[in-house]
Amino acid sequence: MKVNIKKLNENAVIPTYGSPYAAGADLYACVEEEVSIMPGETKLIKTGLAIELPVGYAAFIYARSGLASKRGLAPANKVGVVDCDYRGEVMVALHNHSNEAQSISPKERIAQMVIAPYVTAEFFETDTLSDTVRGEGGFGSTGTK
Prior knowledge:
Blueprint: E1 4-7, E2 16-17, E3 25-28, E4 35-37, E5 42-52, E6 57-62, H1 65-71, E7 73-75, E8 80-82, E9 89-96, E10 102-104, E11 109-117
Antiparallel strand pairs: 1-5, 2-3, 3-11, 4-10, 5-9, 6-8, 6-11, 7-9
């Protein structure tokens, strides 16, 4: 799939895949200097990129596992969504879940982007829903102890 990307900053880095079968493409920080993120703080980190996704696709922004597990840095909204009609800068709201200040360097990998198809639903209000075995069983209702 071809995806058009526009550099909004000459220092921006085009996303890259870490291996031939990687689902997520790494996104890079487009910052002039190191950015410090204090414990419990969230900072919006620019990528310097805008993206043109095909209709019917969205880009989902996930944490990089190493950054999250080793340094406690992950997207504040857990999963960011870039809609196919959005043409603004792709940014990552990084939250520091650790007990120590963390810093992001220029051109550091900060998140991963997965491009995937989506379905747009047409919602119909009704007074009844079909019956199922599960019924109204909520959180933990299908597991065993």
